[in-house]
Amino acid sequence: MTGPVAATARYSHVAIAFHWAIAVLVVANLAIGLLHESLLPGTIPLHKAIGLTVLALTAGRILWRLGHRPPPLPAEVPAWARGSAHALHMALYVLMIVMPVSGWAMGSGRDVPRPVSWFGLLDVPPLPIGKAAAGLGHEAHEILGWAMLALVAIHVAAALRHHYLLRDGLLARMSFRTR
Asked: Per-residue pLDDT tens for 56-85?
C-alpha cells in the first residue's frame, strides 16, 4: 500500500468512542475473568457489571452502525485481508453479545436465581432459564472467553501491523486524533 489513508476515511467520533470504551472493558473483563481466582479474588461482581456494560454498549454500537456505515477500506487492501478483517469483526461482535449473555445465564439457573447488580446502582433480573441452560452457559462462557482473548490478540496484532509495518494509516481511522 502506498501512503496513509485519507482523513475522510475515518470512523465517526461516536463509533470511535464505542470502540475504545468496549475495548477497554473487554480487556479488563478478560483479565478479571482469567485472574479472579488467583490474583483478583472478590472481583466477580465487578466482572458481571462490566459484562452487562459491554452488552449494553455493544447493542448501542450495533444500532449506531446500522445508521452509520463504516468508512470503506482503501482499494489497495487485498481481498483476503478484507475478508479476514470482516470475519474477525463479525466474530468479535458475536462474542461481545454471547459472552455477557452466557455469563448472565450462569447465575440465572440456580435453585434460587439472583439478580446481577450493576455496580450497586440497579439489579438486573435473572434470565428465565433452567439449570441445564445455566450449565451450558457456564461451559460456553469459559470456552468463548479463550476465543475472545485470541481474537482480541489477533485484532491488536493486525492493528499494530498496519501501523508499524505497513504504515498505511488504517489505525488512525479509529483514533480521536484528527491528523
From this structure: 999 999 999 999 999 998 888 899 999 999
